UniProtKB/TrEMBL annotation:
UniProt xrefs under Gene3D superfamilies: Fe,Mn superoxide dismutase (SOD) domain (1.10.287.990), Iron/manganese superoxide dismutase, C-terminal domain (3.55.40.20)
UniProt keywords, alphabetically: Iron, Manganese, Metal-binding, Oxidoreductase
Protein name: Superoxide dismutase [Fe]
A Pfam family assignment: Sod_Fe_C
Metal-binding found in the keyword field: yes
Residues annotated as domain Manganese/iron superoxide dismutase C-terminal: 112-214
Names of the cofactor(s): Mn(2+); Fe cation
UniProt keyword annotation of Oxidoreductase present: yes
EC nos: 1.15.1.1
Entries under InterPro entries matching the protein: Fe/Mn_Superoxide_Dismutase (IPR050265), Mn/Fe_SOD (IPR001189), Mn/Fe_SOD_BS (IPR019833), Mn/Fe_SOD_C (IPR019832), Mn/Fe_SOD_N (IPR019831), Mn/Fe_SOD_N_sf (IPR036324), SOD_C_sf (IPR036314)
Species: Phytophthora nicotianae P1976
Length: 302
């Protein structure tokens, strides 16, 4: 009996160490800084209430997941996946959304420049055509969801897509660059049921510098997104993709799984690069579960 309890405690401790909880990020500006485009009341409720709820529910569900995993309760694990996706997506999407916006006196509004502008003009013909496409598709989202400007690793082009509820942009095959929240809580207190008015006003506070930074990173690291998209989701180490949802891996299998996925998608050269870079310094420790893009860059650039 004692041995059984000790084994259970060890499994539960190992599972708990593998979990990576999330926290509510600070807004990079005051609640009222986006007025008159978005009221301070909306921003405060949106950030302090709605986003905080996604964070709380995601972390609580993770604890339940760890307990179910430690007991080998696979049926329970399956019932928890929708809540993980919904609340985790809510956290990921809103974390992007806050940085996609900025007050007018801090870079909000105007038009994109540089490589992002060229990509938009190439895909849509002009910035105005892009805005019309983004507004039309976002306004047409039934119920709640998101409108996205994203980058496709497959086509190497930008595009406008939508996702329902709190599904992340990455579920559409695109890396998120600019997200517009079209849940009613994002605009109803100010724009009532007239979603198009909200979609017209939000352009005055879009942080195009942030959007372009995301575009440049997505272009540089689109291969990394491809690897994470092909990996199975199992509890353990969390590999954080560029702008995408975390992909959990087991420490024992992570090296093999990433190598296998990389070889199938990118060929032997990528495998060789991993041999020379990542494998020499990648230490998978239970108490250090986060392996981020910054870690990957540092190791592969050495």
């Amino acid at each position: 009996m004692l041995a059984s309890r000790l084994a259970f405690s060890a499994r539960r401790a190992a599972s708990t160490r593998a979990i990576s909880t999330v926290t509510l990020p600070d807004l990079p500006y005051d609640f009222g800084a986006l007025e008159p485009s978005i009221s301070g009341q909306i921003m405060e409720i949106h950030h302090q209430k709605h986003h905080q709820t996604y964070v709380n529910n995601y972390n609580a569900t993770l604890e339940q997941y760890a307990e179910a995993e430690s007991k080998g309760d696979h049926a329970k694990l399956l019932t928890l996946l929708p809540a993980l996706k919904f609340n985790g997506g809510g956290h990921v999407n809103h974390s992007i959304f806050w940085t996609n916006l900025a007050p007018k006196n801090q870079g909000g509004g105007g038009e994109p420049e540089g490589e992002l502008r060229k990509a938009i003009d190439q895909e849509f013909g002009s910035f105005e055509n892009f805005k019309k496409t983004m507004a039309t598709k976002s306004a047409a989202v039934q119920g709640s969801g998101w409108g996205w400007l994203g980058y496709s690793p497959e086509t190497k082009r930008v595009g406008v897509v939508t996702s329902p509820n709190q599904d992340p942009c990455s579920t559409t095959g695109y890396v998120p660059l600019l997200g517009i929240d079209v849940w009613e809580h994002a605009y109803y207190l100010q724009y009532k049921n007239v979603r198009p008015d909200y979609l017209k006003a939000i352009w005055e506070v879009v942080n195009w510098k942030n959007v372009e930074e995301r575009y440049l990173v997505a272009k540089k690291h689109c291969w990394f997104e491809g690897v994470t998209d092909t990996l199975p989701v199992v509890p353990g180490l969390v590999v954080d993709g560029v702008g995408g949802s975390p992909v959990p891996l087991t420490g024992d299998n992570a090296d093999k799984l990433i190598t296998q996925a990389a070889k199938s998608r990118f060929g032997h050269n990528f495998d060789t690069k991993m041999d020379e870079g990542v494998r020499k310094s990648w230490q998978l420790q239970p108490d250090q579960p986060q392996f981020t893009v910054a870690d990957w860059n540092r190791q592969t650039d050495e």
